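During the reporting period the student researcher (J.K.) took over the structure-prediction task from the postdoctoral fellow and processed the backlog of single-chain submissions. One of the processed entries is reproduced below for the supervisory committee.
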Amino acid sequence: MGLRTGSRPRMLQLKSLRIDPPVVQAPMCGCSDLPYRRIVRRFGCALAFAEMVKDRAVIDGNRKTRELLSSDANDRPLGGQLAGRDPELLAEAARRLESLGVAVIDLNAGCPVPKVVRAGCGAALLREPALIGHLVERMARAVSVPVTVKFRTAFDTEDNDRLLEIARLAESAGAAALTVHGRTRAQGFSGEPNLDAIRRVKARSGIPIIGNGNIRCGQDALRMMRETGCDAVMVARGALGNPWIFRSIQAALAGAPEPPAPSPAERAAVLADHFEGLCDAYGTERALHRIRRVIPWYVRGVDRSCELRRAGSQLESVSQFRDLIAGLSSAIPRADVRGMIPEPSRDRNGPP
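J.K. obtained the following C-alpha cells:
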C-alpha cells in the first residue's frame, strides 16, 4: 500500500489549502521560530508551524507569545498550534490566530512535557477522547481555516481502541487532518515509531493522515508513506541543522537520486544565515545567546565537532561567531549525518 517508487507524490489538501510536496515542519518549542522557518522554507518546506502556544496566553496578548507567533509575508502558509483544554478559550484563541494570518490551526494532544500534562493539556488529552472531539468541534466552528489535531498513539501503553476512537471523534467533529506521532507519551522521543498504529488510523479515516516520528532523511519519509499509507509526513528534530532534509524527501518521493550531502562550507553558510536571521529578530545580544543552542545542530559529523560545540557554548561576540564559521567551513566531514537526530529541547516548562 502507499506510494509507489517513482510515482508523483500526491499533495496534501486541507480544505482549500494545498501543500505540495506533502511535507510539514513540526511545531517545536525552542526551535521553530521565524528565523528557523525562513531557513527550512528555502529548502522546500511547504508548510511550517510556529511553536506551540497556550490558548490563554494568545488571548491575553502575552509578550513572549506574541514573539513566538511573529511572522512575515514570506512565512506562508503558516501553521499555529494551541495547547489547552477549555473549549471556549481554544475557540477564541483559534480566532486570534486566524486574524494573524495563520492558515492551519492544530490542537496539541501529544506534548509530553510534565508541566503541560499536569495542566491536563497536551498528551493528557489522550485519556479523554470525548473532550478532544468537543474541543475540535468548537475550534472548527470558530474559524474558517482548517483545524487539525496532532496526537500520540497512547498515554502510557498502546491502546488500539482508544487510538481509533480519538481519530474517529476528531474527524466527526470537523478536523481537516490528523497528525499521528507514532510513539506513546511515556516513550517521549525515544524508540522507534509505531508505523502500524499510524497505518490503522489511516485505514479507518476519511481525512488526510500525516505521519510523524523519526523522519531523518528522504528514505525514512518514503518508508513512512509506503508502510502506513499516510498522505503526508511531518518532520521534527530530523530537520534541526539539516534543512537539506526537505530536498532529500522531495527527491525520494519523486523517485529521483538522493541529493549530495552538504559540505561543511555549505553548513557554515546556512548557519551564518541562521544567525543573521536571529539578529534581525532579536537583536545581536539575544541572537548570540540563542545561536548557542543552534550551533550543535550544524556541526554534527565533522572532525572538529567537539571543539566547535565547545566554542559555540562560550560564544560572546560576533567576532567569535565569525571564527567559528571559519572553523566549520574548513572542517572535514567525518560521516554522513543525515540519520543523526539532535536531542529534544530540555525545557521542562512547555510554552509560555
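The committee noted the following: The radius of gyration is 20 Å.
J.K. will present the remaining backlog at the next meeting.
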